[in-house]
Amino acid sequence: MKLSGSCLCGKVQITIPDISQEITVCHCHMCQKFFGSPFLSLQELASDQFTLKGEESVHRYSSSPWAERGFCKNCGSSLFYHALEGGYFFPAGLFEKITGTITEEICYDNKPDFYQLNNNAKKFTEEEFLTHLFKE
């Protein structure tokens, strides 16, 4: 499925020529603060699997020793999570007419009690996720 999306002001535009419809939800505290809610993410993409126009409007924030997060300097829209030794993860909300299925929930033990997602996704605690992330 091809996706096109942008930040709120339109100065940053993202095109993904081909991507699955699997959505991962991250409930970690950093994502909750950065996105204002859990992070509903598309699958991981290498830098050659998408086109980003308007790079001059992107600010990159080093949020941890292993990752950075990007946002639009003009409107403040959250644009991506970038694992420094991996790929990019884009929020589903940037894209028009997106469809998909939640297949994973990570850092599930950090999920606030006031909502429940209706799905049969695999669920991982923060410890399980970080152990998997740094096992290599």
TrEMBL record:
Residues 3-109 form the CENP-V/GFA domain. SUPFAM superfamilies: Mss4-like. The keyword Zinc applies. GO terms for molecular function: carbon-sulfur lyase activity; metal ion binding. Keywords: Lyase, Metal-binding, Zinc. The keyword rRNA-binding does not apply. Belongs to the Gfa family. PANTHER family: CENP-V_GFA DOMAIN-CONTAINING PROTEIN-RELATED, GFA DOMAIN-CONTAINING PROTEIN. This is CENP-V/GFA domain-containing protein. It comes from Enterococcus pallens ATCC BAA-351.
